Amino acid sequence: MTDLTVDLGNALAAEARPGVSEGALDRLDDRVARAHETITAGMAADGFGYASLGLPERTDPGAIEAAVADLDADHVLTVGIGGSALGAATVSAALGLADRHHTLDNVDPVETRRLLDALPLDRTTVNVVSRSGTTAETLANFLVVREAMDEAGVDWTERTVVTTGAEGPLRTAATEQGLPALSVPEGVPGRFSALSAVGLVPAAVLGGDIEGVVRGGAAGREALLAGGSLFDYPGYAYGAVAYALEQRGATVTAMLPYAESLEPFAEWFAQLWAESLGKDGLGQTPARALGATDQHSQLQLYRGGRHDKLVTLVRPRERADMAVPATDVEGMSYLGDATLGELLDAEFEATEASLAAADQPNIRVELPRVDGPGIGRLLYEMEAACVLAGELLGVETFAQPAVEWGKRAARGLLGGGEFPEAEAVAEKTTRVVGGE
Ligand SMILES: O=P(O)(O)OC[C@H]1O[C@](O)(CO)[C@@H](O)[C@@H]1O
What we know:
With 436 residues, this protein is an alpha/beta fold. Helix 1 (22-44) packs across helix 10 (234-247), helix 1 (22-44) crosses helix 15 and helix 10 (234-247) packs across helix 15. It has 17 helices and ten strands. The strands form two sheets. A five-stranded mixed β-sheet has the order 1-10-9-7-8, sandwiched between helices. A five-stranded parallel β-sheet has the order 3-2-4-5-6, with helices on both faces. It has two domains: 5-42 and 214-393, Glucose-6-phosphate isomerase like protein, domain 1 (Rossmann fold, 3-Layer(aba) Sandwich), CATH 3.40.50; 54-208, Rossmann fold. The radius of gyration is 23 Å and the shape is globular. 6-O-phosphono-beta-D-fructofuranose is lined by residues 81-84, 130-132, 135, 138, 190-191, 275, 400, 403.
């Protein structure tokens, strides 16, 4: 099997509570067909948001590689947040570059100091990413990184690449300093931009297979355009059943990949699902987890807790492996005959079966390998799933208005303008317990 697959078996009404009956799937597929028309029309017109699903066609890996060709580096430091960081971290980890790709996606002074002290700044490329070009955390970190390079005697203008929109402070800085600059594609919200320069620049600098990532995305696009039903397109199968389970009470979605190299993918998925579908009082709450690790922390809840969750188990069909040394120590000898990969696969199947035995809905997602084409396809299919779920929910999938209130309040608190939200901060009701 060379393609990504989605197995809905353990989410069907015969197996799970909540679950979706075969009849309900048939009826739902009529709505999927109508949504598909809206989605493909939006893609054809490069409509806002829908344009994201056309990215594999628009993204030129060669042009990205050419833009960063002069940036010789052992490490990349991405300065960006949300969709301007999570896609790149997901791609780099899947390409085995996680130890050389670092992300500053918070403004924690202790962590920022630690990272800047640890990095060989003279061998580091700074990758500054912001679609709006105005995000406070990203701009503040960029100023801090520039100063740290100045203090280290490193010319940051020689080691910085920018990806941003057509306008804004970052675009101005790039033009003034003559920095290599790439564009966030028009009509693509940050969380849907992994298959563009936003997600691919760090891997390009570090010599990763970005052409393979785009090719994986292109295969997903081809299958989407050739399909239109939840019964023949994996992304739609996932999106439609996630939607149907939410309607039936599964208001939490736990993403459980069984590969360390896919842990950032669970983070990326959390933003995609939360920021796209969490509106109008709707939306599933994402939970990030990792298999087999979180079997020993979260599984009790997933199996023994409320029936309000969809658990998605993700694994590659093939992976490099390591033998477990033989031993005749009682209680351990059975392990000596296996490999770590076999143990991980046994854990995957056992956890999946344990959820089914408890009638807890779960979906299996398998990709051939965690590599360029594999991660490109997985990202694309989940984006398509999210776009479909948004159509079925009837929400504005591509906007995130609720995040602006807090940004205005923070800016006002820092003297960055008059914002009523900043005043509301001072009106907090307090009922403090503890302290003196
Ligand atoms: O790329 P930008 O404009 O810096 O935004 C970063 C992130 O912040 C958000 O706007 C949320 O605040 C996300 O949608 C986005 O991915």
